[in-house]
Write a structure and sequence with these properties.
Helix content is 12%, strand content 39%. It is mainly β. The chain folds into two domains: 246 residues, no CATH class; 70 residues, no CATH class. The strands form five sheets. Strands 1, 2, 3, 4, 7, 8, 9, 10, 11, 12, 13, 14, 17 and 22 form a 14-stranded antiparallel sheet that branches. The longest helix is centred in the N-terminal third of the chain and has 15 residues.
Length: 352
């Protein structure tokens, strides 16, 4: 006689398999989006419709459309920070406290605290401290779970503006330090996850840090001080970068930075975790339907005579807890005929 099973236990050692898939997509952000599409040279810096400034003045946000539009997407934030231990901190006359607070906040999140409980300063491993920094905080919409290693590339020095602040007309490419011995130099002592060192193609120096999971680039302003008269510049209003850091607001410095961005791109990463359950149906399993219309006058509708084998059609699979609580339901694309002469395995995949 056929056996009617209501529940069947899944063997965790044989019937459950987990996997992880990394999905990547390229994210290009051109300089025209950042500084030229909505205004360009005909609009004063800071008045572009896709740049949102705030009354607190501690950072500004860049959108891909005018930010008042319902279709606008947040791309990244720009902030400026100066450590209290910086050589120019005492001479900072504009937003001194705010620049220090921004630096401390970012350092606390990304670098953590030392053994004494003090906030660690940004420091390039086996290198110098970063005590004057520009922070690029990329939107989670773009970064997803993390920035893919070896994919980050920032080019500075746009031909749209004269005399870019690097002191030359060259394009300064800021990217991750190349692999050594086939391995990317990745550091894991940050509370925010993994990070690596950024290097400048013009100065050939280590110029910042990139935090993969946080989606934040920390750029040392010292790396932009190559020429005898390095400038934040547009067609008018040129002034030295060191003077801008001390005497100008965060918005002013951010505007100058944006208008010298040529391009930035990276690949994001989405981590897709999957658990696959192999639901085995033996020839005597689940040969009876829970549908109340399966019976008519206490007789199985799909049987022509009493000696015919039972027939059922599998339309869905339910996954239950140990207490028989329904946790998930999987639907088949079409009903699957189940008879005592058949056995099969159904694979249920849960993605999260």
């Amino acid at each position: 006689m056929a056996v009617t099973n209501t529940f069947k236990t899944i063997d965790p050692t044989e019937d459950i398999v987990t996997s992880k898939t990394l999905l990547n997509e390229n994210v290009p952000i051109t300089g025209s989006i950042v500084s030229g599409t909505y205004g360009g040279a005909t609009v004063s810096m800071g008045s572009e419709g896709h740049i949102k400034t705030y009354s607190h003045g501690m950072f500004q946000s860049v959108f891909d459309y005018p930010y008042l539009s319902s279709s606008a997407n947040h791309i990244f934030d720009i902030a400026v920070g100066i450590s209290a231990n910086s050589s120019i901190y005492s001479s900072t006359t504009s937003q001194q406290a705010k620049k220090k607070n921004v630096y401390n906040q970012m350092a606390q999140v990304l670098m953590g605290h030392d053994a004494t409980g003090s906030i660690k300063e940004f420091k390039i491993p086996d290198g110098n401290y970063i005590r004057e920094a520009i922070f690029l905080n990329f939107s989670r919409l773009l970064v997803k779970d993390e920035i893919k290693k070896t994919s980050f590339n920032l080019k500075m020095g746009s031909a749209s503006w004269t005399n870019p602040f690097i002191g030359t007309h060259k394009i300064d490419t800021i990217s991750e330090i190349p692999k050594t011995g086939g391995q990317q130099r990745v550091y894991t002592d940050s509370p925010a996850g993994e990070y690596t060192v950024l290097t400048s193609s013009v100065s050939n120096t280590r110029c910042g840090l990139l935090f993969y999971q946080a989606g934040i680039a920390v750029l040392s302003t010292a790396s932009f001080m190559h020429g005898k008269n390095p400038k934040w510049s547009r067609d008018t209003g040129q002034h030295r970068l060191d003077a801008a850091l001390t005497a100008s607001t965060v918005d002013t410095v951010a505007n100058g930075f944006r208008h010298n961005m040529y391009n930035v791109e990276f690949n994001n990463t989405t981590e897709l975790n999957s658990t696959m359950y192999f639901c085995k149906v033996n020839n005597n399993d689940f040969n009876y339907s829970s549908n109340p219309t399966y019976l008519s006058s206490s007789k199985i509708r799909v049987k022509e005579t009493s000696v015919d084998p039972p027939v059922s059609y599998v339309t869905s699979i339910g996954l239950y807890s140990a207490n028989n609580e329904l946790l998930a339901v999987a639907k088949l694309s079409e009903p699957l005929k189940n008879t005592p002469s058949e056995r099969f395995t159904l694979r249920v995949r849960l993605d999260y």
